[in-house]
Design goal:
By secondary structure, the protein is of the alpha/beta class. It has helices spanning about 1-30, 35-75, 140-145, 170-175, 190-195, 210-220, 220-225, 245-255, 275-285, 325-330, 335-350, and strands at about 100-105, 115-125, 130, 155-160, 160-165, 175-180, 265, 295-300, 310-315, 320-325.
Length: about 350
């Protein structure tokens, strides 16, 4: 509103000056003190100059707005990381074995609250495993540690027998891909969003249409993409606003797997999908291991139907690892948290 008011006052002042100038100029012409063509030329100059000054005022307003917004960007760029990645390890073979040894985590913003305490487990290369538990139990915290968003407060995290901070930061993130519950898509085409994470000097160089389509098929996205008018050239909109929640999640999964990661982390990555599409993605991505390269998959999920066929399930409650095993093994424990979670979800489904 302020910029509109300033612009209105400026236009009104310019109009008043024009009226005064024409009145006084007409009087000078009648008194033969100024020639008519000279007055006309002066009026044209004044109108041109006024238009330029008006444009300058608008540009100045836009510049001040941009300068204020850019300050936060520069503050972000100038931030110095508390934990600088200084690992150099870049092995030729990366198998995807994950091991937590007495891992604890306290978030810096909540120093009095323990997020994880003495978590110990091991995942073999190529296994599909899951974290389950009530909200706030610490499932996403384990995934955050694997992505090195935080370093553990205690204990060690090993990948292929080496501590995670020994690995080169860029190398590690080439081998690990993550899909979150609220994926971020850019205002680009679907194809550009899928290949966004692939650099020009990537060793796989998998930017061709065949690789994009194959990744979309694995994520069960190819069907709805081809139904769109422009197919893979369809714009996603700002933050993926032109697509539904389930469509955005499938595009994000395709963006992750086109990189061919050795470790795939899914943090509620199929929460917006219906059971049919969710099952198709599971069959293509997790359980059809005879037709895909070896990939360790780690899932954080509330919907327990997502993880029934996992090789191993870890039940986390209030930051502690309470149970672990297959679905069948955990269901045999009549007093276990996992069986209680399954029972409650079945009751919710039956009541619907």
């Amino acid at each position: 509103m302020n910029s509109i008011s300033v612009s209105s006052y400026f236009d009104l002042a310019q109009l008043g000056m024009s009226v005064v100038m024409l009145s006084y100029g007409a009087q000078l012409v009648r008194n033969n003190r100024v020639a008519g063509p000279d007055l006309l030329a002066f009026v044209i100059y004044q109108l041109t100059l006024g238009s330029i000054l008006s444009d300058i005022s608008q540009i100045y307003t836009a510049l001040m707005t941009a300068a204020g917004a850019s300050q936060s960007v520069f503050d972000y760029l100038d931030r110095k990381p508390v934990h600088k990645p200084n690992g150099t390890l870049q092995p030729q073979e990366f198998r995807g074995e994950i091991e937590f040894n007495s891992v604890s985590l306290v978030y810096p913003a909540r120093p009095d609250e323990i997020a994880l305490q003495n978590i110990t487990f091991k995942i073999e290369p190529g296994q599909t495993c899951a974290f389950v538990g009530p909200s706030g139990s610490g499932k996403s915290s384990c995934i955050n540690l694997l992505e090195r968003f935080y370093d553990p407060s205690g204990g060690t995290i090993l990948i292929d027998g080496r501590e995670i901070h020994d690995y080169d930061h860029k190398y590690l993130h080439k081998k690990i891909a993550m899909v979150g519950q609220e994926p971020i898509l850019f205002n680009r085409t679907i194809k550009e969003n899928i290949i966004y994470a692939i650099s020009d000097n990537d060793e796989n160089n998998i930017r061709d249409d065949a690789a994009v389509i194959h990744a979309a098929e694995e994520a069960n996205a190819h069907g709805f993409v081809t139904d769109l008018v422009n197919g893979y050239n369809t714009k996603c909109g700002q933050r993926g606003g032109h697509l539904s929640g389930g469509q955005k999640q499938r595009i994000s999964i395709a963006r992750a797997i086109i990189r061919k990661p050795t470790i795939l982390l899914l943090d509620e990555a199929t929460s917006a999908l219906d059971p049919v599409n969710e099952r198709l993605i599971q069959d293509a991505l997790f359980y059809n291991k005879d037709k895909q390269e070896q990939r360790t998959v780690l899932i954080s999920a509330h919907r327990l139907s997502t993880i029934e066929r996992c090789d191993k399930i870890f039940v986390i409650h209030k930051g502690h690892l309470i149970e672990q095993g297959t679905h069948e093994e955990l269901m045999e424990n009549s007093n276990g948290i996992y069986q209680e979670l399954v029972r409650r979800q079945k009751m919710d489904i039956d009541s619907c």
